[in-house]
Amino acid sequence: MSSGPAGQTARSSVQPLTRVQPRAMSRSTLLTSDGVRIEAAYDPGPGPVGGPAIVLAHGFTGDLGRPHVRRAATVFAQRAAVITFSFRGHGGSGGQSTVGDREVLDLAAAVEWARSLGHTRVVTVGFSMGGSVVLRHAALHGGRTEARVDAVVSVSAPARWFYRGTAPMRRLHWVVTRPVGRLVGRLGLRTRIHPHEWDPVPLSPTESVPLIAPTPVLIVHGDQDPYFPVDHPRMLAAAAGGTAELWLEPGMGHAEHAADDELLARIGAWATASWTSATAE
């Protein structure tokens, strides 16, 4: 849902428009490479300056202030610094949601901010729509750019676009594609949705995964997910050709709401494991 492809031309996005003191819980405003202002928050976590940072990418209709996003950030902050932000069209950020297309530019801005604060290892953790965004972002930002990531965790993500095989996804498509649905999204869900279809259609999550290696990828999915059944994570894992780790969580539903503290703690441990091992040597 954009007027052009997202991610291919992302460069150094962004110096924060508002400055922060790096060792205090802080808020800032970032500017993406296409000129959208993104609200962001930084929790320095328990480690030293330059330790690992987790950038949390929320799901559709979320934002950095939602209780389920804050809960996940609090669990992650027990192990690492955490950056949360609101995707375009959500919360206090500008612009309109493109439901996973140009959101890669928002994530790139947040990752670059993490590196500007001195974090040498940055891991992205995305939920649902954010789970698809972290995969596309990692595929499009390899090499030594400041928007690169050192590991990727995708939770409850779709494998393919335009999926309508479940009732929740049919409702979501109604919200996104119909004028009255977008009105409901703006007034009832506090999400401003772009009115145009994707042109061109962005790289799908399944197409993105093979391009991420050798960066480590973790795919997490609940076997009771009402939005995307388990063929989605299995397709993603298969597309990775054995380079991604897959956790199918018994009894888990969808995204941040369904991820309990124990699962979030395991994700945080996975995200920081290689940094912890390296510093212990």
Which SSEs are present, and which pair or pack?
Blueprint: E1 26-31, E2 37-43, E3 53-57, H1 67-76, E4 81-85, H2 103-116, E5 122-127, H3 129-140, E6 151-155, H4 167-177, H5 179-188, H6 205-208, E7 217-222, H7 231-239, E8 244-249, H8 255-258, H9 261-280
Parallel strand pairs: 3-4, 3-5, 5-6, 6-7, 7-8
Antiparallel strand pairs: 1-2, 2-4
Region (Disordered): 1-26
Biased composition (Polar residues): 1-18
Domain AB hydrolase-1: 52-158
Total of helices: 9
Strand percent estimate? 15-25%
Uncertain parts? 1-22, 277-281
SS-based structural class?
alpha/beta
Which strand order does the major sheet show? 1-2-4-3-5-6-7-8
How helical, in percent, are the residues? 25-40%
What number is the mean pLDDT?
89
Order of helices and strands: EEEHEHEHEHHHEHEHH
What profile does the largest beta sheet have? 8 strands, mixed
Please tally the β strands and state the result: 8
Query: What does the overall shape look like?
Result: globular
Distance between the termini: 47 Å
Write down the Rg.
17 Å
Question: What does this protein look like?
Answer:
It is a single chain. By secondary structure, the protein is an alpha/beta fold. The protein is built from 9 helices and 8 strands. It has an 8-stranded mixed beta sheet with strand order 1-2-4-3-5-6-7-8, with helices on both faces. Helix 1 runs parallel beside helix 9, helix 2 (103-116) crosses helix 3 and helix 4 crosses helix 5. The chain is globular and about 50 Å long. The N and C termini lie far apart (47 Å). Mean pLDDT is 89; it is low at 1-22 and 277-281. Residues 52-158 form the AB hydrolase-1 domain. Pfam families: Abhydrolase_1 (PF00561).
